[in-house]
Design goal:
40% of the residues lie in helices and 17% in strands. It folds into 2 domains: 62-175, PDZ domain (Pdz3 Domain); 178-315, no CATH class. A hairpin with a 2-residue loop joins β6 (154-161) and β7 (164-171). The chain is globular, with a radius of gyration of 20 Å. With 318 residues, it is an alpha+beta fold. It has 9 helices and 11 strands. The termini are far apart. The strands form 4 sheets. Strands 5-4-6-7 form a 4-stranded antiparallel sheet. It has a 3-stranded mixed sheet with strand order 9-11-10. The chain has a two-stranded antiparallel ribbon with strand order 1-8. The model is unreliable at 11-23 (pLDDT under 50). Bound molecules: zinc ion. Residues 219, 223, 240, 243 line the site of zinc ion (ZN).
């Protein structure tokens, strides 16, 4: 029997991914699952933050980023709530699950476990868990409230830490519009829709290093950067190649090794990876690998000549 682990945003991915393919957990298993998810969430949030903030000038839509991941207890399936409360200090309020190193949230000395009470005087809602499967509505509303408080560059947050109220000013940083989200699931999926960049835990598992993770997230962020939306198959094929070509530039500018993308794409080709990343709407892996290799070689030349890492004109916002 499949147990709901953590509820997620929207209907970007197929509904089956809204539940983890985990069997009924043994007594000690939820803690291990929540800890493993936190480690992966931290990797995704950290790489995503670096990609989104280093490439602001290449993105058509922007936001002000704080570098924290908010979660609520109501987001977790009933089997995982005790572990999420224990490990992540989650409550009925939106709570900081992690803080990205070097981010505005870290500079403001916000901490995991801080419960959010107000942003710029507007209260965050409390949401007691009511359904066994969990709901993403509360955490999404909290993310939206935080983003709109930060839209002018700063937000004054009231948080509760160890029972004590504190007021903390966060000075945000400009970023490409993207909320990075890890989805518990066994299918190798990654998608972007202009707001969200989602990838499954299975897809994240293909990345053995931060550089490799930056390739996968960079491809999806490239779709957002280029303003891609779901289109007719012929257009989508062209969009996939565009995202593949822009991806190594996003990586290099964020301090990742763009050559790692060649290795990841080559491994996808070897696996004949199916699903959303390789179907009728996608070019062949051979074509995609060649496109990535060509841009990685061009970036190496730019670096060797000491020139700025700027993508070709057709990959820049008009
Ligand atoms: Zn794509």
């Amino acid at each position: 029997m499949r147990k709901a682990l953590r509820s997620l945003a929207g209907a970007l991915l197929p509904g089956t991914l809204l539940v983890a393919a985990a069997p009924a957990p043994a007594a000690d298993q939820p803690a291990a699952v929540v800890r493993a998810l936190l480690a992966d969430d931290t990797a995704v949030a950290t790489v995503g933050y670096r990609l989104a903030t280093a490439n602001v000038d290449l993105c058509v839509e922007h936001m002000v980023e704080s570098g924290m991941l908010i979660e609520t207890l109501a987001q977790y399936g009933s089997d995982y709530r005790a572990a999420a409360a224990d490990i992540l200090k989650l409550t009925e309020r939106p709570t900081i699950a992690l803080v990205v190193p070097g981010s505005p949230a870290e500079r403001a000395e916000l901490q995991p476990g801080d419960a959010l009470i107000e942003a710029d005087g507007a209260p965050f809602a409390e949401t007691p868990p009511t359904i066994a499967g969990g709901t993403f509505t509360a955490v999404e509303a909290a993310m939206t409230a935080l983003d709109s408080a930060l839209a002018d560059g700063t937000a004054r947050l009231t948080v509760v830490r160890a029972g004590e109220r504190r007021t903390i000013d966060v000075i945000g940083t400009p970023a490409c519009k993207a909320r990075f989200q890890l989805i518990p699931g066994d299918d190798p999926d990654a998608v972007a829709n202009g707001t969200w960049v989602q990838l499954s835990t299975r897809m994240a598992g293909f990345a053995k290093t931060p550089d490799q993770l930056a390739a996968i997230l960079g491809h999806e962020l490239a779709h957002n950067a280029l303003g891609h939306r779901k289109s007719r198959a012929a257009i989508q094929r062209a969009q996939e190649l565009q995202a593949d070509r822009l991806m190594p530039y996003l990586m290099a500018r964020a301090g990742y090794d763009p050559a790692a993308a060649v290795g990841v794409w080559a491994s996808f080709k070897r696996r004949h990876l199916g699903g959303l990343i390789q179907d009728a709407t996608h070019p062949s892996w051979s074509e995609r690998l060649r496109a990535v290799e060509a841009e990685v070689a061009r970036i190496a030349e730019l670096k060797a000549r000491g020139e700025a890492i700027v993508p070709p004109a057709d990959l820049r916002p008009r």
